[in-house]
Amino acid sequence: MSTVREIGEDLCLIEQPMGDSCTGIAVLLGKEVGVIDTGLPSAAQEEIFPLLREAGRDIGDIGLIVNTHSHADHIGSNRELQETCGAGIAAHTSAIPWIEDLSAQRRDLWGLFPEYHPLESDEDQSALNSTVDTPLEDKDKIFIGDRLFELIHCPGHSPGSICLYDERDSLLIAGDSIQGHGSASAGLAMVLDLDGYAQSVQNLAGRPIRCMVRGHPYLPYAETCVLGEEQAREFLAESARAISRYLLVLFELMKNTPEGMTLGEVRDFMTREFGRGQQTIQAMFTTAVMLRRISEQGLIACGDDGHWRPS
């Protein structure tokens, strides 16, 4: 069962169940209703529409959807809301190709590691494709509901990841841009761009944040997607420290393993060390990008047999 948290008179967060976690859907009840991320495909009928009816609003009041990034658990109800309500969709320009073609997104992501996470089928996800009407860029200002947000481009988790910042209330809608220790289900924070992620954390740390709304209940604060001021500050610090710890442990592992390890073996070690040992593709992305970083420093290399070893 989903949980609805009232963050303000005009702002509710739906925490839609997703496995042993949840995904966040923010609904802003202004003169026009705005929705930030649309969750899984079932969210429109099971969570968003019932919330609006309970608030005495019509589903046709939804005028704008903003996606914090392109991953399927955040855009699953885009198309239904777009077609049912006539809502426009806004997203960062880098996120648009995957929002408009989920099948390509699935192939592009899962196809990076076919030997470890083969596609179970060439599933056609075109029924969930949606059209982005408003491309966004860093520092753009946009009204969602009755609130004015500044868009902060936060690459790292994905190229088109963004945060939305309401300066008046020091409110940050963070999506999956900042991940602490990762989710309970993913094993590690999912990062595709280490430099982008580090810069994103640094950019956010300089802003006053009284309330942070995350895309999932990332560790070490796994009770809810919503954090208060003190927790938000510590969460940002932990997000930076987590990546440093990953790199340090990974370098020590490689230095002390002259026989080498495959990418999958390194991933499994890292998730045992930092998570619950899940063999997830999310942890594979992070492991691969960290191995590449250490190899760029000339400290390790991948042999023809697919084993990473000290150089």
- What would the CATH topology of the largest domain be? Metallo-beta-lactamase, Chain A
| Total domains | 2
The span between the termini is: 51 Å
**How big is the Rg?**
20 Å
Shape field: globular
Please give the CATH class of the largest domain: Alpha Beta
Low-confidence stretches: none
CATH superfamily of the largest domain, please? Ribonuclease Z/Hydroxyacylglutathione hydrolase-like
What is the ordering of alpha helices and beta strands?
Answer: EEEEHEHHEHHEEEEEHEEHEHHEE
Describe this structure in words.
- By secondary structure, the chain is of the alpha+beta class.
- It is built from 9 helices and 16 strands.
- The strands form 3 sheets. It has a 7-stranded mixed beta sheet with strand order 1-2-3-4-5-6-7, with helices on one face.
- A hairpin with a 2-residue loop joins β1 (3-8) and β2.
- α6 (194-205) packs antiparallel against α7 and α8 (263-274) packs across α9.
- It is globular.
- 45% of the residues are buried.
- The model has no long low-confidence stretch (mean pLDDT 95).
